[in-house]
Write a structure and sequence with these properties.
11 helices; Chaperone, DNAj Protein, Chain A; elongated; three-stranded mixed β-sheet; Helix Hairpins; four-stranded mixed β-sheet; HSP40/DNAj peptide-binding domain; alpha+beta; 372 residues
């Protein structure tokens, strides 16, 4: 039976690039690999056919000869031909080794995991900067065995099943696959006499105290990275990092929006009507705020450079403090106070409440429009 065209086997054009050929072969290998099928529908033959096609087309010299002479080049009947009895395993491992093998001689040295710690700060600490100490649970290198996992005075030995490679060879017909050694789980080493302190893990759990330098201006969601303060690595690998995530507690007086601060300042209706001088708080102490006569609720007064200094965080400047006036209606009035207010209301002119008059007119127009 004549062989099918290799490009047809892989389902690619003759102009296909190497990545396109690898992608096509990868798809077919996933579909027809013997480990995933039991031979039904000729899956094994289809897998071999795809592997043979990939081996030829992924070799630039062989592909050029095949494009010129066709299968005659594979059979060696054309000048300069070559045999197709090559190692399909090498092609398979190159294209598909990350799924069906762990990689020959793969190092088992791994970086430690990163850790996260949520640091709660008061607004004052976040604005001015702080240097708090934190305690975190983590995995550190066992000092008894120096991270080897083996009893003091001994060392891990080569795995007898894989010879220290961490991989074993599984034969599949005329090609071979590299698989993770089931005995040492890819480490290449086994521990005959485990360390009693870490029980052969090379790492022990410990709570350690760290000092965190918090720069001025941080806000909720900002992260501070402490390099190498995460979990210890495996088999001598580097430690991970610790990420300290800032959470600024709610403040009793101020709210924050990036570099600006906001606060509400309640005043009496007398001060709002006649004006006056008030003391308002800032993060640096009290300052005097002049309230002009006839100030209305919601009026914002801006105090320049009384906000948050963002220079060390995002290279910005100093924000402002905005004081929002809230006119407070008096409560628990005495009889005399009520009489005075009634007297005031009786002498009040409509022009003294322009917003109220404007609102009443607007309501009247709305009602009249509904009636029409």
């Amino acid at each position: 039976m004549a062989k099918r065209d290799y490009y047809e086997v892989l389902g690619v054009q003759k102009s296909a690039s190497e990545p396109e050929i690898k992608k096509a072969y990868r798809r077919l290998a996933m579909k027809y690999h013997p480990d995933r099928n039991t031979g039904e529908d000729g899956s094994e033959e289809k897998f071999k056919e795809a592997s043979e096609a990939a081996e030829i087309l992924l070799d630039s010299e062989k592909r050029a000869s095949y494009d010129q002479f066709g299968h005659a080049a594979v059979d060696g009947s054309a000048g300069g031909g070559f045999s197709s009895s090559s190692n399909f395993g090498s092609i398979f491992e190159d294209v598909f080794g990350d799924i069906f093998s762990g990689g020959r001689g793969q190092s088992q040295v791994h970086r430690g995991s990163d850790l996260k710690y949520v640091l709660d700060l008061d607004l004052e600490e976040a604005v001015r900067g702080a240097n708090p100490k934190i305690r975190i649970p983590t995995l550190v290198e066992c000092m008894e065995c120096l991270g080897s996992g083996a009893k003091k005075g001994t060392s891990p030995i080569d795995c007898v099943q894989c010879g220290g490679l961490g991989q074993v060879t599984a034969r599949q017909g005329f090609f071979s696959l590299q698989q993770t050694c089931p005995r040492c789980r890819g480490k290449g080493k086994v521990i005959k006499d485990p360390c009693q302190k870490c029980r052969g893990q090379g790492r022990v759990e410990e709570r350690k105290t760290l000092s965190v330098k918090v720069p001025p201006g941080v806000d909720t969601g900002d992260r501070i990275r402490l390099s190498g303060q995460g979990e210890a690595g495996v088999s001598g690998g580097p430690a991970g990092d610790l990420y300290v995530q800032v959470n600024v507690r709610e403040h009793a007086i101020f709210t924050r929006e990036t570099a600006d601060l906001y606060c509400e300042v309640p005043i009496s209706f007398v001060d709002a009507a006649l004006g006056g001088q008030l003391e308002v708080p800032t993060l640096e102490g009290k300052v005097s705020l002049k309230i002009p006569a006839e100030t209305q609720t919601g009026k914002l007064f801006r105090l320049r450079a009384k906000g948050v200094n963002m220079a060390q965080i995002r290279g910005g400047g100093i924000g402002d403090l905005y004081c929002k006036i809230v006119v407070e209606t008096p409560v628990n009035l005495s009889k005399r106070q009520k009489e005075l207010l009634e007297e005031f209301a009786g002498n009040q002119d409509a022009s003294q409440s322009p917003r109220q008059v404007s609102w009443i007119k607007g309501v009247k127009r709305f009602i009249d429009a509904l009636r029409d």
